[in-house]
Amino acid sequence: MATVLSVSGSPSATSRTGRLLRHLDQRLTAHGHEVIALDVRTLPAEALLGADVRHPAIVRAAEQFARADGVLIGTPIYKASYSGVLKALLDLLPQYALTGKTVLPLATGGSTAHVLAIDYALRPVLNSMGAAHIVQGWFTLDKDITVREDGSLAVAPATAEALGQVVDQFSAALGRTPLLAAAS
């Protein structure tokens, strides 16, 4: 099947966004995809903020994007936009790093007032980077994601069902050729 790069754009180690992505990674793996997790917060801050495209960690991240057939990008929404650490990474990647790739944008936030951030803040950047197909993204309210005491994740049933459908659509889109995906 396809190789998927699952990118968490959260700056927090205890992020609901990151945990949600890792939860969804399991579903993609069950579909037969190879999933590579990338937590942007683990990249060196000095490389991200200093725009050091030659730093080995940034080079590895760019190689992971190049290798992937599809990219799952998750971000918390801050001040009606995606996270700054995600922006810093996207700025360091080659201009057309998403060429030929299927992309699924996901976001989390505390209020439905931020639901359009995917379409108005993140989608234009993904488009400008040459994504062949950006599937319908999904916004999840923080209150619908619970981290249990044992570290496992619980997602509200209606949200879990909707996320499952979105991830399944992304998985199906990965099987299409870039030309077919761009035409749909």
From TrEMBL:
Keywords: Flavoprotein, FMN, Oxidoreductase
Domain NADPH-dependent FMN reductase-like per the UniProt entry, residue ranges: 3-144
Name of a matching Pfam family: FMN_red
Protein's UniProt keywords contain Oxidoreductase: yes
GO biological process: alkanesulfonate catabolic process
InterPro entries: Flavoprotein-like_sf (IPR029039), FMN_Rdtase-like_dom (IPR005025), NAD(P)H-dep_FMN_reductase (IPR051814), NADPH-dep_FMN_reduc_SsuE (IPR020048)
GO molecular function, one term: FMN reductase [NAD(P)H] activity
Protein's UniProt name: FMN reductase (NADPH)
Species this chain originates from: Streptomyces monashensis
